[in-house]
């Protein structure tokens, strides 16, 4: 997908704290789920990478379909040895959840 992302950081006025939990699809007790998504990062040999949870059903800016290679989001895949297998399976996309309270 070559669309622009409408926001990079989500903000809620009803919560004082937000967390992103990689590898999960649900929030801890007393936390509210904002969305579930896919964990993303820069390509492995790019500098200054950070992990971001991109919504499974993302919005995009209408009319922004251009391939300018600005900020690129690559899905993070599981690797057995780095993560315990099971419960993870090698090569699968890693889910994430964003929670607030």
Automatic annotation (TrEMBL):
Taxonomy, superkingdom: Eukaryota
Example of a GO cellular component annotation carried by this entry: extracellular space
Protein name: Uncharacterized protein
Organism: Magallana gigas (Pacific oyster)
């Amino acid at each position: 997908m070559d669309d622009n992302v409408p926001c990079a950081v989500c903000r809620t006025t009803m919560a004082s704290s937000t967390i992103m939990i990689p590898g999960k699809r649900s929030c801890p007790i007393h936390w509210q789920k904002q969305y579930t998504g896919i964990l993303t990062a820069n390509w492995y040999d790019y500098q200054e990478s950070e992990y971001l949870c991109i919504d499974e059903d993302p919005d995009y800016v209408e009319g922004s379909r251009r391939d300018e290679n600005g900020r690129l989001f690559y899905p993070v895949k599981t690797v057995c040895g780095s993560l315990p297998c099971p419960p993870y399976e090698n090569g699968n996309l890693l889910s994430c959840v964003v929670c607030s309270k």
